[in-house]
Amino acid sequence: MKTIITCFSVLFSVNFIECSFRCDYKYSVVAKGWFKHFVVPATWYDARLRCALEGAVLLSPITQELEDEMSQILKNFFTSESEIFTGIHATFSDGNYFSIEGIPLSDIPLPWAEHEPDNMEDDERCLIFNGNGDLADRMCEETRPYICYRNGSKEVETNECGTVDNEYRLDTRTKSCYKFHTVPRTFARAHFACSAEGGHLVIINSETEAQVLREIFAKYQSGTMPGLFWKNVAFIGFQDWGERGDWRTIHGETLSEAGYAKFSPGEPANATPGEFCGSIYRTALLNDLWCDKPAPFICEKRPDHPAVCHPLADEENTIDLRSNDISKLRLDCTV
C-alpha cells in the first residue's frame, strides 16, 4: 500500500506539487526541501535525535536558500529576540564546529552576534541562529526551538507502513506496523523514539497481537543483539503512571480495557525498587521492568500515520519566482 497525498500551493502559475516525505513537514520550492519547526524548546541533543528519527537532520544555514528559509520561519512563528538551535556543533572536539552534514563552520559564511562566540564557562559547543541572521554559541544542554530538514534530493519509496523506514513491517492480522529496536533505551527514550518515528510503544490489544509480538521477538535472538543488557525482555506501552500497581497503557486504558492483561507468573513483582514500566518476555507475557535501565523495545504505528507524500520532479512544475515573499512558496501537504 502506498499513500499518495498532494501538496497544494497558492501561486499565480503553480497549481500543485507532490511531496516525497512526511506531510507534517512543509515543502519549500526555493530551498528544495522539507521543513518542520518545533516551538517546544529542546536540548540540542534531543533536537538532533528527533530530527534523525523522523528521517531528517537538524537544520543548519549551510546555503543561502536554507538561511532564507530559517529567517522566514523565525519571522513567521517566533519573536525577533528568538534563537533556534542549528545543527552546527563542536560536540566531538572543542572548537571544531561542523554541521550535522559534516560541513565545517569555515564554509558557512555567517556573521557572529555581538560579543560572540564567547564559550561562556568553557561549555558552549552548539550554535544558535537568531532573528538577525547571526550565530552565537550556547550550551548544548540548554533548550531552544529548532527546525528539522530533509533534502529534497532524498527521494525514497515509502513502504506499506507509510514510512521510508523499512524496519517497519505490516502484519495483516492486526493491520498495524511494528519495529523491533535492538539498540536499548530507557523507557522514556524508547517512548521518544517511537513517537518521533510516527508511532508509539506497542500496546497489546488481543491474544492475536501477543502472538504477533512473540513471532517478532523470536527473530531477534540474544546473540544477534550486541551489548551488555537483558535481551529477553522488551519495553512496550504500559506503566503505572506513578500510582504503584495501577497498570495502564500509555493511552490511559487499563490493561483489561486495552484487551490484554496476561502477566508472566509471579509478575508484576517489583523485585527491586523501580520496576514501574511495562515490558514483555519472549513469551509475550507481561512483566514490570526498571524504567531507567535500557532495554530493547517495540514500536507500533498505523500505516496511514503520519501521511507520506510522493514527489514529481521539480522541473515539471512552473513556479512564479518573481514574488519576494518566499513564504508563498512553502507548500502545505493536505489529504
Automatic annotation (TrEMBL):
Q: Which UniProt keywords apply?
A: Disulfide bond, Signal
Residues annotated as signal peptide: 1-19
Q: Which SMART domains match?
A: CLECT (SM00034)
What InterPro entries does this protein's entry cite? C-type_lectin-like (IPR001304), C-type_lectin-like/link_sf (IPR016186), C-type_lectin/snaclec_domain (IPR050111), C-type_lectin_CS (IPR018378), CTDL_fold (IPR016187)
C-type lectin domain location, by residue? 43-149, 173-300
PANTHER family from the xrefs? Answer: MANNOSE, PHOSPHOLIPASE, LECTIN RECEPTOR RELATED (PTHR22803)
**Protein name (record):** C-type lectin domain-containing protein
According to its UniProt entry, this protein's organism is Heliothis virescens
- Top-down, what is the taxonomic lineage of the species of origin? Eukaryota, Metazoa, Ecdysozoa, Arthropoda, Hexapoda
